[in-house]
Each structure stands twice: as structure tokens, then as C-alpha cells.
Amino acid sequence: MSEHVTAVTDASFEREVKQASHSQPVLVDFWAEWCGPCRMIAPILDQVAAEQAGRLKVVKLNVDENPQTPAALGIRGIPTLILFKNGAPVATQVGALAKAQLAAFVTPHLNVV
């Protein structure tokens, strides 16, 4: 994890994601250690989190260590990225993304400063 990306767990998901500040959306990366595409997008997520600091919160949830939340959200493959706004999922992307694709995925949901 980087200084701009934090880890969440089944126990902290409600507080960190669903009850997060309504001023910024939360991008959740559902991942696992053994997942190659998950490791591939990690540095891209770090870059986007740094560039959008204050406008976008980026968190990661390890699906092997925290199986309840992915099951509740119906996640079947990883990496899965879900963007939450005002505590509700507004967009989902399954699979690895290039930086431009990730930016295009999150930008429409960011609040204009």
C-alpha cells in the first residue's frame, strides 16, 4: 500500500466505504496476493490515488482475508473495482485497466473543485 491507498477489512468496510465522507467517492479494489492482474494494476491505482488526493479515496480489500464483503456484493472475479458515491456503488469494472482507462472510469464521478 502507498500513503494514498489504505487497506480495509470486512470489519471496517461499512465505516471506511459506506459511511465515508459524502464529499468524495471511494474506489474499492477487491484483490488477492496470488492475482497477477491485481498486482499489475496496483501501481496504477497508487498513481491515480496520489493525483486525485482529496477528490477520491482509494482503498483495497483482500478477498482471501475478508470473504464476507465480496460475497455480499456478488464479486465473482478479481480484480474488481467498485466506485462508491454517498455510500452506494455507482460503477463497477472487472479486470485490469490501463491508467487512461482507470481515469476514464473514475473521472465522471469526481466532484468538480
From TrEMBL:
PROSITE patterns: THIOREDOXIN_1 (PS00194), THIOREDOXIN_2 (PS51352)
Keyword Electron transport recorded: yes
InterPro entries the record matches: Thioredoxin (IPR005746), Thioredoxin-like_sf (IPR036249), Thioredoxin_CS (IPR017937), Thioredoxin_domain (IPR013766)
Residue span(s) of domain Thioredoxin: 1-111
Entry superkingdom: Bacteria
Family annotation (SUPFAM superfamilies): Thioredoxin-like (SSF52833)
Gene3D superfamilies, per database record: Glutaredoxin (3.40.30.10)
Key words of the record: Disulfide bond, Electron transport, Redox-active center, Transport
A Pfam family the protein falls into: Thioredoxin
Record carries keyword Transport: yes
Similarity comment: family membership: Belongs to the thioredoxin family.
Protein name, per record: Thioredoxin
Organism taxonomic ancestry: Bacteria, Pseudomonadati, Pseudomonadota, Gammaproteobacteria, Nevskiales
Gene: trxA
